[in-house]
Structures are given as structure tokens and as C-alpha cells.
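Dear Dr. K.,

Following up on our conversation at the group meeting, I've run the structure prediction for SIR2-like domain-containing protein from Georgfuchsia toluolica. I'm pasting the input sequence below exactly as I used it, so you can double-check it against your construct before we proceed with anything downstream. Let me know if the numbering doesn't match what you have in your notebook.
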Amino acid sequence: MIKSKTVFIVGAGASAEVKLPVGEQLKKIISDKLNIKFDDFGSKIRSGDTQIASFMRQEFGQSLNRYLHACWKISDGVGLAGSIDDFIDTHQDDPDVATCGKIAIARSILEAEKSSHLFFKMENISDTINFGSLQKTWYMPFIELLTQGVSRTEVKTVFNNVAVICFNYDRCIEHFMLHALMARYSIEKQEAAEVVTGLKIIHPYGIVGQYFDKPGEMTVPFGSSAIPHLHSTLSNLRTYTEEVTDTDSLNAMKNAVAESEISVFLGTAFHPNNMRIMSDGLGQPVVKRVYATTAGISDENKSMIKDDIGVLFRGAKHVGINFATTCSDLFSRYSMHLRR
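The predicted C-alpha cells came back this morning:
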């Protein structure tokens, strides 16, 4: 059980521990998927993602060629950008690039969910995640931390002092928590879903599809092979250079940061825009301790991260900043600290 108010700020590196692609990998996947070429008769696809091509044919009809040009732009240039989001931002004057980019993001993330250590084929009601494959990830110590000292009758209190700000499009946390609680407490899926939907989890840039049932919205299974409806894809996903206008999400995010005594950065790149939307309009935080992963970040850049964290928390002199490499390393080093 976590006794202090704690916010977990989650980036792509956290999902990478269960084998979702990040950085260069994701750019390469998207580039390959959008290199859509047909044979001379236009009937058979020679390269690119067959499902995206079929989806676009159905959605765009006679305008397909126009969107194919946007796909080729992305395929040719995304490798030279920091990320797909950066590339879309560069081409703000071309809305077709954003449309095709988001279709590719949705397809790539859903496919990545299916290839991850969290996916399983639900052929029988008793089927679940292979938790043994997660032993070297942060997911296992996280669920241990949350549930330690919490009895079956108190399961609804598991997330009482916890909030999550997740900058990823995937639903790895929701999926893991649902099945982990079912296994940990021997409870039915419906009861576990009620507990997990009570978790304050904010996705500032949206998700590839609703994971839990929500009135008026279609659910998208974890690792779905189908691309969600175009309108859902475009409305559910925002790149980090698009303005976050969901007031409820913004307020929930700022409240989570402002009220937390402990802040934990898991697999984030400390992107300036992400730090900005958390800090804009934020009152004086009460944070006492900060923990952050810095895998792939040089010692020289760590000093800048300290400055960025200082700006987020209004330069509070009393804040102690503790670094670890990976997410699993952070929980291994600081699990006792996080319980208090």
C-alpha cells in the first residue's frame, strides 16, 4: 500500500519494458507501414501495411491518392524527425499528414500491444497474462507495492493515494492492472474493472481506443487487429504538439501534480511540452521527494533534467531528486521509499 499521495508520470520507456517499440524503432515501423505502393494495376499492394491500405481505400475512396501522398511524405521523412509527433508538427499546414500519421500510430500501437508480454489470447475464461514473463519489469513490483497490506475486503482502496499521468497512447497499465487484480485477489473481471476504473489515470494525448466500457463509445480490445473507426482514431489521439483542450484532463493532471508528496517519472524523456502542460497554472506543489529514470540520458543532460524538475515544482529547495536507470531498477532501489 502506498501511504503518501503519489503521482506516477509515465512515458514510452515504461512500456518498452514489456516490449513496445520506442524512438527509432517506432519511427521505422511507421515509415515501413506508410510506404504503401500498389502494382501497376492498382489492385495488389507491393509494400506498406495491407490493413492500413484497405482501411484508407474504404475511408477515402476517390481521394485515396491524395492521402497516399501524405503517407509517402511521412515514410520518407519521419526518420529525420525526433518522433512521428515532431514530423506531424513540422507539417502543420498539411492536415492529411496528421490524419495518416494518426492512422499509422493507432495501427502500430495496437499491433505493439498484441506483440507485447502483456497480450494473451482469451480462448478460455481462465486465460490471463503470463506474469512470469514480467518478472524483470516494473509492473510486478508496482502491483506488489500497491497491494501489500491491502486485504481482499479492502481491494477498492488499492489506488487511494495514487494518480497516473500517462503520456503513452497504449493501454498497458489498464490491461495489466485489470488482470493482476483478478489474479491477486481471486476476483471476477467486473469487480476488478470497477477498481481499476477508479484509478486516477490521465492520458493527456489520448489512447488508441477505449479499454473499458464507456457509454456512447466503442471499446477497442487490447491488441486489436482492427483499426478503430476513422473518427474515433482522429478524435482519440492528439500529438504532443497539438493543444490539449480537455479541461477535465488538464485539471486532473495539475491536481495530481500539485497534491502529490512523491512524484515518480517512469520512462519519460522530459519533453519540454509535457513538462509545460503539467506546470502551466500550477499552484505551489507540496512534493517532498522525486524519483526519475534516466536510461539513455547522459550525465551532462541529467543536470538539465534537475533544472526542469525544479521548474515544475517551483524551485522547491527541500525536494530531493533520486535517479535510477530503468523503471524496474527504480522500483528495486526505492521500493521502501515509495511505501512511506
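Two things stood out to me. The two ends are 9 Å apart (CA to CA). The first strand starts at residue 6 and ends at 10.

Best regards,
J.T.
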